[in-house]
Amino acid sequence: MTDSTTQATLGRRLMARLDEAARHSQPGPGVTRLFCSDEHRAVLEPIADWMRQAGLTPELDASGNLVGRNAQAMAGEKTLILGSHQDTVAEGGKYDGMLGVALPLQALQALKETGIELPYGVEVVAFGDEEGTRFQSTLIGSRALAGTFDLASLEARDAEGVSLGEALEAFGGNPQKIPHLARRPESVIGFVEVHIEQGPVLEQRDQAVGVVTALTGIERHRMCVRGRAGHAGTTPMPGRRDALVGAAEMVMEADRILNATQDFVGVVGKLEVRPNAVNVIPAEVNFTLELRSPDAAVREQGRKVILDACQRLAQARGLELSSELTYQAEAVACAEWLIEALESACEACGEPAERMFSGAGHDGLAMHDLTDIGMLFVRCKDGLSHHPDEAIILEDADRATRVLMRFLTHLGSQARSRS
Q1: What is the CATH number of the domain that holds 31?
Q2: In which band, very low, low, confident or very high, does the pLDDT at 359 lie, cut at 50, 70 and 90?
Q3: Which residues lie closer than 8 Å to 43 by C-beta, 6 or more apart?
Q4: Which positions make up the binding site for allantoate?
Q5: Which end of the chain is more exposed for a tag (fewer CB within 10 A), N or C?
Q6: What is the pTM of this model?
Q7: Residue ranges for the binding site for Zn(2+)?
Q8: What residues are designated binding site?
Q9: What pLDDT was estimated at residue 1?
Q10: Are 201 and 223 within one domain?
Q11: Does the keyword Manganese apply (predicted)?
């Protein structure tokens, strides 16, 4: 199972599957695959096939997740949940999310091919939505399993005015049955996700994998700046109520505050101008503000400072400013027993794996409400993610798959001791 030929085979198979999944994308740079899109529908076919090859039975659930279960899970035995998300940001990479779907399926298939049967239930989930790119409502699939999905979010609409509920129904889901997807905590061993690091730490350490200790807290706001439109040539500069100039000042002030605050990061990632005409003073600007910190107090204080500063800037220019909290998730810790189990698997495979914090949010933020979570990071080139050039190397694909195989085969005794 651990000879170099097998390792190379595992890596080649995994990289080929990731390439195959990446072909299901909107035209343009990188990978763009949105929740309940044609591309989402298309990528489920190869994923379902990978599940069957791993000895799992695939099923599309009411929330748009594709779930593969082994025989023990289908019989109601206590189950380990593995997986990640299939969706991407606009013009993203081929590994963010999809690695955590394809890699555990590859590991399970390799164990099956060597005659190893795991003594517990296994589910691998390709979560429908984690990024929130289409509906600005993240962790839809993982919240459904955790039993924390808010049915009010079904009213969220995309840029074309399609609601989340409408999109799910057209996709083959069943919005009203989402509450029935909630797993019973006593039926779950834990949740483990494999993910690219999305940062430079592993590359700086020259390590293929890392064991995650906690996931960052995140909040997102929708900001709306309203001014007054006017002719760009005939309206004097003094006294203009230019919403874009005001919004630009707010963006710069937020950036200044973020840079001056330790353990606090954020971004204005989306900005819309109305009427967006070359010779008209902007009347309205909508922009997003995302804030992250492992320390809730730092994030809450930073948010207050930024929002207060934005209000002062708006008043100084005669603008109206409104803000709406659209998403919030507190930082969560990984379970110590899963951290240690992943560390032991790394050690057994000869892979140094220091503990590390995740500055990104993942499906574990939602799954933590259901069960213990664990996470294995895989090195990515230049620490780059959410970008067409996002990349991992074949050797690291080998190593991470081998680590997860070791983790799975040695989890049985730990799982029984926790029953």
Answers
A1: 3.40.630.10
A2: confident
A3: 21, 24, 33, 86
A4: 220, 279, 292
A5: C
A6: 0.81
A7: 85, 96, 131, 195, 386
A8: 85, 96, 131, 195, 220, 279, 292, 386
A9: 42
A10: no
A11: yes
